[in-house]
Amino acid sequence: MRILTQKQVREIIGKKYDDHQYFHVVIDADADLVIGEEEVQSSVDRFNWLKELPKKDYKPVVFY
Amino acid sequence: MSKRFTYWNGFSSSLASYTTDFITETGISDVTIINALTAFEASLTSAGIIDYAFPASNKIRALYVIVGGTAALHKYNFLDPRDLDAAFRLTFFGGMSHSSTGMVGNGTTGYANTHLTPSTWLSQNDTHISVYVRDNTAAPEVEIGAIVDFSNLLNISTRFSDSKMYYSANGPFTGVANSDSRGMFTASRLASGSNQAYKNGVLFDSSSQISKTLIGFDILLSARNISGTPRSNSSKEISLASVGSGMTATEASDYYNAVQTLQTSLSRQV
């Protein structure tokens, strides 16, 4: 996972990271705003800055 | 919708059909896929589950066959392959990967929106959802669903972290022990006090949970929509999914047999 600031979230929200798929930011159990590594690695060139963002392991919020 | 009956690769059909519409709209030319879908449609039609001539009688409203190997092709509803939300075309979000065997979320951000809202398109006591899963893992994940709260759900978790299948078709959830999440899972309701789960076409569990008001949020794949927020994202590969009317035991069995034959023809059966 990659951690984003709220400003960085606003730069990708509602945008496609490839021709057919949209970014989806989630809040993990630490209250961090994160996106998946698949989105980062598959994104088109204008989102290369995502590859510089800090990484972390995902801590899911579990809903039973 | 435009219709053609002969294709560049030589495949031809003398009759209009869902398969004809689907391959025309998607541009799929793989003969193995076309032949598999043709046989699949014939089986479903023979079982009375779909009927191209009388679509109002269809038991299935949205049917995702997930063939072609890419997001661009996996998004189409086999029964209405227009590239529109109104046709229940899938929209993908987050980390989703696509291949010839199906589509798989990353378990964290990935999911697909069907744009099918139960309160608009389904009936409270006449609903089914189905999903064909190729992975066996126990995790706090849901493969298809939308919920208002935990007393009113339309969802299937094929194998949750406690190794239970959780299912519901418009009402409270029911859990049943399940050690293998591979296969075809269906949740069906045909009466207010009767909700069934089928695994591979066989009755897997039945509950008397009373139905509740239809949910007003879009049904998601590889996650569930909790009052407008995608949650419980799945990392299990999905090779087919559907939403529609409730199914009898016979229909669930016939549906599974048709789906399994399709998956076998595509060399991705489990």
Tell me briefly what this model is.
By secondary structure, chain A is α+β, with helices and mostly antiparallel strands. Chain A contains two helices and four strands. In chain B, a hairpin with a 2-residue loop joins strand 11 and strand 12.
What report would you give on this structure?
- The complex is a heterodimer of chains A (64) and B (270).
- With 64 residues, chain A is of the alpha+beta class.
- Chain A contains two helices and four strands; from the N terminus they run βαβββα.
- In chain A, strands 1-4-3 form a three-stranded antiparallel sheet.
- The model of chain A has no long low-confidence stretch (mean pLDDT 92).
- In chain B, strand 3 (96-99) and strand 4 (102-105) form a beta hairpin.
- Residues 1-13 of chain B have low confidence and may be disordered.
- Chain B has five helices and 17 strands.
- The interface between A and B is medium-sized, with 22 and 26 residues.
User: What are the low-pLDDT stretches of chain A, counting only 5+ consecutive residues below 50?
Assistant: none
Mean of residue pLDDT values of chain A: 92
Question: How would the global form of chain A be characterised?
Answer: globular
Radius of gyration of chain B: 17 Å
**Computed Rg of chain A:** 12 Å
What's the main sheet of chain B like?
9 strands, mixed
- Spatially, the strands of the biggest sheet of chain A line up as 1-4-3
Instruction: Compute the separation of the termini of chain B in Å.
Output: 35 Å
Separation of the first and last Cα atoms of chain A: 23 Å
Assembly type of the shown chains? heterodimer
Strand content of chain A: 15-25%
Beta-strand level of the residues of chain B, as a percent range? 25-35%
Task: Give the structural class of chain A.
Answer: alpha+beta
The major pleated sheet of chain A works out as:
3 strands, antiparallel
SSE ordering of chain A: EHEEEH
Largest interface: A-B, 22 and 26 residues
Gross morphology of chain B: globular
By DSSP, the count of extended strands of chain B is 17
